[in-house]
Amino acid sequence: MSASPLDELRADIDTSGAPIQQHDVLDAAESMVGRLAEEHRAALNAALRERNHLAAWLAALHPSVLAPAPDAGDDWHRLFLRAGGWQFTWPIPPGDLPLFDHVQRVRAGDARARWDGHTTDQQYLRIRTHTAVLRLSDDDTST
């Protein structure tokens, strides 16, 4: 693991014998926090990109539309997908929209793009339930 800016500062101080200055410690801490924030942003973006690849695949298999989602951010859209009789939704950032070129774009307020009020926890339960139903269907066809 690479040394943090604070470790580097401590090493410099140890060799120079100079007293630690508060502004040096603050500068090093600010640099470290900035670097950690950027690493976390990159990891989050990578996870969202992977999720969006999977959502694009699901959208190819199920009735889906994309509608503008200004509440999520500038040029963001929301994927509305129907599977197992339920609605599923995911916000899609502008950079990932090309993954969804196969999905019809509709205006906000289109009947197919009206949120049914489900919470994130309800959506996760719907996913688990639908997965279990699909698994049972597979088991039924093997007999």
Tell me what you see in this structure.
- The chain is α+β, with helices and mostly antiparallel strands.
- Helices cover 52% and strands 15% of the residues.
- The protein contains three helices and four strands, in the order ααββββα.
- It has helices at 5-16, 22-61, 120-141; strands at residues 64-68, 77-83, 86-92, 104-105.
Briefly summarize what is shown.
The chain is α+β, with helices and mostly antiparallel strands and 143 residues long. The protein is built from three helices and four strands, in the order ααββββα. It has helices at 5-16, 22-61, 120-141; strands spanning 64-68, 77-83, 86-92, 104-105.
Mean pLDDT: 89
* Arrangement of strands in the largest sheet: 3-2-1-4
* Number of helices in the DSSP assignment: 3
Query: What distance lies between the first and last C-alpha atoms, to the nearest angstrom?
Result: 54 Å
Content of β-strand: 5-15%
| Uncertain stretches | none
Inertia-based shape: elongated
Order of helices and strands: HHEEEEH
Kindly state the number of beta strands. 4
Q: Sheet with the most strands?
A: 4 strands, mixed
Please tell me how large the radius of gyration is. 24 Å
Structural class: alpha+beta
Fraction of residues in helix = 40-55%
Q: Which short descriptors sum up this protein?
A:
143 residues; elongated; 3 helices
